[in-house]
């Protein structure tokens, strides 16, 4: 069963977001921790991961959630970074 945890979201507003373990981070939190990536870029990469069927990140309410190690792997993946749309 997925438990809930209170996390900081946007303007210091507390929301209940379910999690599997306490090592998972939202795209916005991962962007702050990793430092050199924007929230919008991590969200775009998360959408690309979802389109090709990868396990992480997972969509929870309005957030993309994944362990920090997965966020690091996602931002270093050349195939996700050099995504081409089909015409």
Can you describe this structure?
The structure is a single chain. It contains four helices and five strands. With 87 residues, it is α+β, with helices and mostly antiparallel strands. It has one domain (24-87). α1 (27-34) packs across α2.
Strand order of the largest sheet: 3-5-4
> How widely separated are the two ends?
42 Å
Low-confidence stretches: 8-20
Strand and helix order: EEEHHEEHH
How many helices? The count is 4
What is shown here, in short?
This protein has 87 residues and is of the alpha+beta class. It has helices spanning 27-34, 39-52, 68-76, 78-81, and strands spanning 3-9, 13-19, 24-26, 58-60, 63-67. It has one domain (24-87).
Key terms:
alpha+beta; 87 residues; single chain; 4 helices; three-stranded antiparallel sheet; 5 strands; two-stranded antiparallel sheet
Task: Spell out the blueprint of helices and strands.
Layout: E1 3-9, E2 13-19, E3 24-26, H1 27-34, H2 39-52, E4 58-60, E5 63-67, H3 68-76, H4 78-81
Helix pairs in contact: 1-2
